[in-house]
Known about the structure:
Distance between the termini: 62 Å
Order of helices and strands: HHHHHEHHEHEHEHEEH
Amino acid sequence: xxxxxxxxxxxxxxxxxxxxxxxxxxxxxxxxxxxxxxxxxxxxxxxxxxxxxxxxxxxxxxxxxxxxxxxxxxxxxxxxxxxxxxxxxxxxxxxxxxxxxxxxxxxxxxxxxxxxxxxxxxxxxxxxxxxxxxxxxxxxxxxxxxxxxxxxxxxxxxxxxxxxxxxxxxxxxxxxxxxxxxxxxxxxxxxxxxxxxxxxxxxxxxxxxxxxxxxxxxxxxxxxxxxxxxxxxxxxxxxxxxxxxxxxxxxxxxxxxxxxxxxxxxxxxxxxx
Length: 273
């Protein structure tokens, strides 16, 4: 029965629903262990299973809420949200502009307000340490430097918060999406590091997109956005990102850790440190 439940969940879920499916499967395994504990009259198995099951269920709820999805719609299939239209997705127009390290350094040192939006790419590359040094350096130079965290950034709630705290980033400059989403129009530079779906403007601008209605960080409303990624490829939801092709955006392509280290070196050289 447990195998059948997992098969149903995996078959129905897809795209950006997959992180939710994973937490649902974790919850399933916990309740299965709990039931086994009842059958074997094993109190330890029952307690551990109930903890795993309930924590997985709570995590699934948090992620569904952050993605504007309902748990039944994830389990039963069909990705779109209630705001999704029935037509074809909007065609993406424009050309992506690539920027080099010196250009990013110039943008940062001439900015007054900077927001960094990290994503799974930062986690995978373990780039939190050079990013923390960049944050410290620019803050000491009088720049209003903050981090904007999507509720499901890193594919699990709180993952980015933990990594940044581990690298020594002060808690007071790490803000949730709802706390600074209205600040982007007044922001000089937004540096997106390894995030894609969580900053995809199609969620708000294209009612026919499969991520329509999903809350996102509105990085494209800043004066300048710089996206650090390995390529122009789609994110976890397999949806192209129009932000990459907007006139106020530049692509800083490469490995997140190597690029952040290059940025840090360029900033230190600029400030004579």
